[in-house]
Model the fold of this input.
Amino acid sequence: MSSSKTTQQCAVVDELYAEAVHWDVNTGEETIHAKRISGVWRNVKWWSYIVWLPFFLGPYLRLGDRQAVLFDIPSRKFHIFNITVLPQDFWMLSLVLLFLAILLALVTATVGRVWCGYLCFQTIWTDIYTWIEEKLEGSPQKRRKLEQAPWGVGKIGIKVAKHFLWLLIAAITGISFVAWFVDAYELWGDIFTLQLSETAMITIALFVAGTYVLAGFLREQVCFWLCPYARIQGVMVDSSTIIPTYDFHRGEPRGRMKKGEAGGDRSLGDCVSCNQCIAVCPTGVDIREGQQEGCIMCALCIDACDAVMDKVKLPRGLIRYESLDELNGKQNPPVHRRPRVWVYSAIALAALSGIIFGLNSLDAVELKVLHSRQPLFVIKSDGSIRNRYTLKVLNKTTSDLKVKVTASGQDGLQLSGTQKQISAAAGSVSARTVFVSVPRQNLTGESGPILFHIEGTDGADIVYSYTRESVFIGPKR
Amino acid sequence: MADNNPFPGENNTGHIWDDDLRELSNPPPRWWTILWWVSLAWCVVYGVLYPMIPFVTDSSKGILNWTQIGEYKEGLAEVEKIREKYESRISTMSAKEILADAELSNYISHGDGAGAGKVLFGDNCSACHGSAGQGMSNFPVLADDDWIWGGGVEKIVETITNGRGPKAVVPSPGMPAHGATLSTKEIGGLAKYVVGLSEGKDDPNGKKMFMEKGCVGCHGMDGKGMAVLGSVNLTDAIWRFDAADRLSSAAYTIQHGVNQMANPKSREAEMPTFGGRLSADEIKKLAVYVYKFGGGN
Done:
């Protein structure tokens, strides 16, 4: 082997390993102890946590003699302030989910993973947990030292306190979740008298375990390996999305600041290789390597870098909110000129109008008509054709109704089975089987329309009515 | 070997080949190992509590004494407890009283599972009468309002219990074959008359023949039949033996009769006896269920 060949070989191997550094994957071998610093985005982060306050406080609002927002699963009634949604109106839930999903897409396409960085429960609960950790165990260095330290009274004391507080938060999280589904005040009563129902107990236990493990131990690993949104959002971001970005034009080549060197007369790029951006990163990634799936776009590295830039007297904004296009000198199209924004907004708007329409058109009573299929029709001894229907009257009001049924749509039809009015109990479905007979000569085809109309009254003046069309089927002609 | 390890400080096991090819010791992550031990512990706990280890003819029982059939029986007992309040009342009431009781008749017609009207009908009746009483070719429709043996709920009980036809508890002779006593022309004329009856016509000549040939004996002066005898109503729109060509179908029935053992071409119309097969309560439930198809009267 000649020596030139050997040199070439070495270069190839070097390149291989140089790249391998970039493929170093965080699989959680080492706990990430992020440094906590103050700054603009840190403050934004604190304020954004307010979004979760209603989750904890919401269940204690009352409206009349019940909880204002209560998802009553056993009796299948979903109270949202003065609206009561029954399972029959659940199509609206799919619109709500669609709206939220598209909203996520819209936000991510314009300003990146705002959800991940500022609002996601995984991010927030982890942040609170590490905040407690910092208060009890000290700075990241101290924490690492404590991890290495042998077990002693002091270490045990700190650890017990930390895990107790973690579990306490987890418990409050679990209880708050369950409080949306049962009466919150009764729930606390049941907890203190140890009379918790099995379902509530299991749900709370699962939440405690989930919160404790996910926020206490798995942390950024959830974003790396468990959360599907982390991956989905990666493809929603494009080169005109404004995200926390390292300005590599300005920063490279990076290098340490020499003694006596002032901000202005630096021969290298502005990045002083202080690694503070990595130190503060809750997921332990290096923003300087560009966009990556591990970055939850929380902007804490911006705070860190700005603080350092101030210290070394260089302009702020080496890491800043900027799109890749802008960074490369291209003009970013205005938000309203981007097709993505239009498409996402249109879908979100459609979903929202659907929800508003649905909430406004919630009928007080509803009628479902099931045409009997076996047999489709019966020939009676007088030669007339009879169809059988099951009427299902849904009474969404809070009082019991007496419901009168009429039918129309076929000449000479006779409705039987409705001599007695249907008593529709409040908030439930009442079924009644009825028969409709039509003289054969009046039928115009093998099948024709028939309208069922109901009028329900609770004895007072208000009459709730509803009409539904069904089909009347006769023999082949 | 450890003394002369050429890669000191590395986590290798000391097994080295070809100078630098060595075996490293990278343990699996701690959380993974913990989960593995937890799973193992769970297996042991499960094995102690539940049946787990198979023997040749048997298996370990587990201290909870849990069995699949036991759980099934518990569930069944639970259901039966709920049904008990209905079932106990059904056994003390007549079919008519059950029908009048909204709660009970609803229990029968909308109930599910063993013992419900739907299941009883499906097991015993639907083979001939169709899954919802819609009938089949040559088997009567139960959902219409034409009843050969009477459509009151007590009559339906009687029909199910005793059956109908030559093998019934109270045998009925069926319709005699007239092929030997009537000419083809007379049969044709009678067939035309009775088909006309169902269409609202009343031909005087046909009527005369109807009276003379003795049809009137069973089918009555007005042709409306008698439920006591099981003779059908000839004036309504429903045909016991229906066919596209009603004239020849009616002529066939007149010629070969119904349930005539001696005549192999005779029509067959037999309802089996269910009195021995089903309990009195089951028959009451079936009667109410059938009645509520909409045809009962």
